[in-house]
Design a protein that fits this description.
39% strand
Length: 331
């Protein structure tokens, strides 16, 4: 198991990572999700041994890695730019790490053939890297990372250069491979769709801290903060003012009316709060005036009074519509 304890790092005299702690269990894929500059790639470089934390510890199966050089950590790393050797064919790219570990000449072809089958590239052994598409090159990069049977796999924005359709296809393949091999993995991305598709657990990074942690379903259901909800595009953010609490419910006054909510945070009357407002089959009903309608994959994206909802049928611009909503309190 990989474990990070209280990791700190500064960059240009500014805090980049502030007390990062998390673990990755055997067979688990953990996604570090955040905007550019949130410290995701720096964390990967520290785990790989390419950088050192200013404070904190990185352990694997209880062993502190501070004195373990990169090449002895036995971790695989896959980058966005593939990192393949252009002067080597596909076979030699995948076999490179195996030769470095002095595997027998009889075992290497068997291992390479098995990996090519796993990534759906059987028969590509003698092809040149430059003859492959971006998706095929990333499959080769994955096979090369898997070849030495690493203790941990790390992915740094691996699909960032691919188009949407190819990205979705590779995500499903990669998830299947990771579950099949049971190799623990850390996947870094700024793309929430990638994170939700690949991760068993998501760590949402913001300004050097983990602001939300949980399964994809947990993070989506309850982002926890207005920043997280906006970053995830998880719904409409509405500002309001706390009115009072009655029978365990708290009333929040907004431009769309008064919402009665249950909130685990402590608030006082008059305090400004942010609410996450989502369309729901049940809940409170609000009236809105339609401002714009956009067709969006078998549904219509409807903008009304500054809020956005998905509807099966398109209302007319200017029409007054009624929407039932679920409302949650955010920090």
């Amino acid at each position: 198991m990989l474990e990070l304890r209280d990791i700190f790092k500064t960059y240009d005299n500014q805090p980049l990572l502030r007390g990062i702690s998390f673990s990755v269990a055997e067979g688990e894929t953990v996604c570090l999700l955040g905007a550019s500059g949130s410290g995701k790639s720096t964390l990967l470089r520290m785990i790989a041994g390419l950088e050192s934390p200013e404070r904190g510890r990185i352990l694997f199966n209880g062993l502190d890695l501070a004195q373990t050089p990169t090449h002895l950590r036995d971790f695989g790393l896959v980058f966005q730019d593939y990192g393949l050797f252009p002067h080597l064919n596909i076979f030699d790219n995948i076999a490179f790490g195996l030769k470095m570990r002095n595997l027998s000449a009889s075992e290497i072809p068997l291992r390479v053939a098995a990996l090519l089958k796993k990534v759906n590239l059987t028969g590509f052994e003698q092809r040149k890297v430059t003859d492959l598409s971006g998706g095929e090159q990333q499959r080769v990069a994955l096979a090369r990372a898997l070849a030495p049977q690493p203790k941990l796999l790390m992915f740094d924005e691996p699909l960032g250069a691919l188009d949407r359709t190819l990205k979705e296809s590779l995500l499903h393949e990669l998830r299947s491979i990771l579950h099949e091999t049971k190799i623990p993995a850390i996947y870094v991305t700024h793309d929430q769709d990638e994170a939700f598709a690949i991760a068993d657990r998501i760590l949402l990074l913001h300004e050097g801290e983990i602001v939300r942690e949980g399964t994809p379903a947990e993070v989506w259901s309850n982002p926890g903060s207005a920043w997280a909800a906006r970053f995830l595009d998880a719904g409409n953010i509405v500002e309001g003012e706390m009115q009072n609490a009655e029978y365990g419910m708290q009333n929040v006054v907004t431009e769309f009316g008064v919402f009665s909510i249950k909130c685990s945070h402590k608030h006082s009357a008059g305090e400004k709060v942010s609410l996450l407002v989502r369309q729901s089959g049940e809940g409170e009903e609000i009236k809105l005036k339609v401002e714009d309608v956009l067709f969006n994959r078998e549904q219509f994206q409807v903008k009304a009074n500054g809020l956005t909802f998905q509807m099966k049928e398109a209302p007319a611009v200017g029409q007054i519509i009624k929407i039932k909503v679920e409302v949650k309190c955010l920090t």
